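Quick look at the format.
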Amino acid sequence: MAEDKNTSQVNMKIPGMKGGPRNRGAAVEKPVNGKETFMRLMQYFAKEIPVIIALFIAVVVMVVCSVYAPKLQSQAIDYISLRKFNNLNHILIFMLVVYIIYSICTFIQTRLSAILSQRIVKHMRQDLFDKIVGMSVKYLDQHSHGDIMSRMTNDVENISNTVSQSMSSLFSGVLTIIGTVIMMVALSPQLALCSCTTVILTIFATKNLSKAMRKFYSRRQVLLGQLNGTVEEMVTGIKTVTAFDRQENVCGDFDKTSDELTKVGIKAEILGGSMGPVMNVINNIGFVIIAAAGGYFAIKGYVSIGVISAFIVYAKQFGRPIDELANIWGQIQTAIAGAERVFAVLDEPSEDKSGEFTMDNSTGNIEFNHVDFSYIPGKQVLHDFNLKVKAGQKVALVGSTGSGKTTVVNLLMRFYDIDNGSITIDGVNIKDIDCENLRKNTAIVLQDTVLFADTVKNNLLYSRQDATDTEIIAAAKKANCHNMIMHLPDGYDSMLAKDGQNLSQGQRQLLSIARAFVASPKILILDEATSSVDTRTEKKIQDAMTNLMKNRTSLIIAHRLSTIQDADVIVVMDNGRVVETGNHESLLSAKGRYYELYMTQFAGKAI
């Protein structure tokens, strides 16, 4: 209890330093090129020089107060022991002023750390988001969306937490150690030397316990990830789990992982919880050494009672930063590793949208000339692909899954660049057409509908911001979804849930088609646009699209051959090659690949 009495008088904990074992031993992710990443990260700090200077001043003043306060306490105790009460009042007032300044600086430091971290991550998050939006579809297709999201959220948040908590703690910790050592040596070099004996024990205990804890904390994180994955799969696929009566098996897998997580978690928490008591024992050993040596020196007249009291406080104040700096270093390493992952995305080349020509006066003649393409080098998808689409013509691409139909659309939209050959619109290579203008004059409806958590009206306006209410309603009527919209609670102002989850799949597809109608494009692309719509609604959409497609070049990809029987030209693809072309009647008469596909769908013939 003697320790509590002595340290309770001046026990200033440096803000931002976490004394508990909660974060100890957590898995540290190390950067590959830490120095380069750190210097690059400093560029974001350079934008906030005034805040950093103010923060540094606040930390310095705060540390000076925390280091100087025990000396004032020492003088007060000496005055009491010597019964010099006349001088005591001045010391107490001075101590009060120091405590007030310390508290004010602590508040300022907390506020400035939060401001600094949020401003830095704001710039970084904005740069990352702008980069992702401007990246090619190819990059986004070839990289895990979850990993990209993790860089935007987890890695950036890691940097934010480190800046707000660890950076100021690192500065204050180093300054506290330096200031404490200086004060201890100034008061009594002999006692300072005795106090430093516990530093070796502190470093040894921290190093070995952290190593043991890191092993279990790392394993716990892995198991926690597995457990979360099991829960996510179960929730997402609950209908399948229930339909096949696999609840017992799912629960068994969950229990197995949960049991192992519990065992590892107990060991991790025991080791983590032992850090505090171990450090407390070491500190108590230090107190015993100071008390014994201080008592001897006091008897010899080398030090006063007040100095001994100050040393007890300094010993505790000296040990804490050493313990915390080990933790902070791990957090900084993890943050730099996260910054490295963020910079890896920022260093990716942006999509090339350049082009000197526009489609403002285009008629819509499309031509594929000897096009070769592969998503992955060595695995060719299109082989010497040739196709001519005249202006205003309705061309359908059909074929089995994997034949390359959607690839043709990806190349036309410049989502990917071809390997060989050329693609032209009105004789102009699409590489020479401004990419934004190309896509502005081309509307595409995909098989997987994408609707945003916004009003119906704003979702329809997404394809053309300057569309009038009259044009929006007209487009909805052509898509046969006007009545459906009017039956929603607020009509066109009704809010849609994320991905339009408050609508049926068919309704979402109708809105997606209506959005393409609003765009009023020169080229219309429908990629399995009616695959999720019932037969009756499909017929209504076909009738509406017949009028819409007049004087527009249209490319239709469909598995349902009933939707493209009136196409001007039907192109049959197989393994990335054109194997047949013609209209519906001529292709049936030829009894080739199209005939086989048709008979499979409508005559039930096994191919």
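Next, a different chain entirely:
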Amino acid sequence: MGKVSNYINQNMAKFKQIYIRYAASIFCVFIIAVVSIIANQKKGFDIESIVTVCSIWLAGNFLVESLWKKTAEEAQKNKQKWLIGYGVTFVIAIVFENLSEILKAQKADIPNLIFESILYFYIACTVLLAIYVLLRQQQLDLPHCIGRIIFALLRAVGVYLVLNIAVILILEIIDALLVDIDTFRVELNIQLLLSALAYFPTCLLAVSDTSEDNAAFTKKFVSYVLLPCVWIAMFVIYLYVVKIFVTQEVPSNEIFSICASLFAIGMPIWMMASGFVEEKSSRYKKLIHITKYIYAPFILLEIYSMSVRVKAYGLTEQRYAAIMFILLQIIYILWNRHYENLILVFVGCLLIGLLLPFGNASYLSYQSQKNRFVKNQTSDKEVAAEAYDYLRGNAYGRRYIKTNLTEAEQDELHSMMYGGDTHDSEQWESVYFYADPIEEKGIIIDGYAKIYTMTAHWNEESTIENYENKTITVGDSEYKNVDFTSCISYYKNLEDKRENQKINEKDIVYEIQVSDTEKLIITYISFEIDEKQDKINRMFMKGYMLTK
């Protein structure tokens, strides 16, 4: 009993230190949880601005508190630094939020893209640098740290799941035996609080305190079960390489994703095993040490696979990221000490990929696809249409299309990609909306006892009048003569409004009273409507059926 008491007291002391050290970070997460709970209870409560500011401020605070609040003594010594840090990161968060609103109102594609890239880099950079600082503060090298961090995070997930199961069980018993409650919403609110007050601090503890060693079973499981599985996977790929040379076949397009996945899973495993197996002179330890070199030839397969894809289909942001990932693998293979410094390399890759003028992922992808479009505009219309489809989704590409293509040329290319027979003769406008009714408070369930999920879709082209009497199936029940015409009109008008003003999430949710005791809640809808607004094509919707 004394051992259990000591264990609890030690962990409570660690939690107390975490709450003191990361007070501002935990406060940000708590505020996000609280406003989300308020939004669950109060329809129309707009949480977007608060969540955005708190999220950006959280990233900055995480770095500030990692740098200057390691111990109580250091926190007191550096009090002025971290107080100024709080103020600076809060101002940065406010500036980002206000700029975001201004740019959204202006609907400026390229400034919006640049702004978002800067924002994403700021958040990623502060979080990664905070983790780097924490790793440097540990007394162990990364191979010894990584196993303790990963399994501490897994334990945190396990504790969080157990607490959630316990809460759900208690609430279900109360609902069944004592009083009717909205168990789904109450469970969600409690989960939000548990995430803010228990799960998040536990994750911070896992990263900032690696003094607790892993159990002997964990070490043996990683070193003698998981690592051999990684070796077997490598052996299979080597057999595939032999098959390529024997049969002279072209490597599969899937080889990049297979090798990249193997690296993403296998690298932490062999690094953990390197820290777990202590006998430095043992043959097994030496084999673990050369595992990354055994993997190294697979990078050539990745390079070949990605070069073929880029040559055939041009560069995209995803392929740019894949090339960066290959570069990181090469650097890792050549790196032999202080692996935590690779975080700085990763930050550098993010800086290049997001912010480098004329060299970032979005701009280089645009240039590649634009060149592909120009090259095939007259010789191969299908390839040109594929490139055009990419350019429509790229900020630089939309500017190019607007200034270099007529509406007739755009219609022709669009019809080649999406048209078929129905699109050749008519212009179709896409309408798409999605809202989370629980999170965004767009659903009213007062007076209704049960909620059932609903999915419906119609792929054929049809007149709007045919949607006056549609049949849908929800669970085991069938509902006939449901009128969707007013729903279609509502979302078409909402799509038109979106051109000139911001749409609140609560406005996206649409209700259809099916009977006196039942109503249908539309939370997701996607369809195409012709320019005369009398035909619908490819209708798809999701939502909930509420019954009393």
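The first strand starts at residue 428 and ends at 434.

See the schema section for token definitions.
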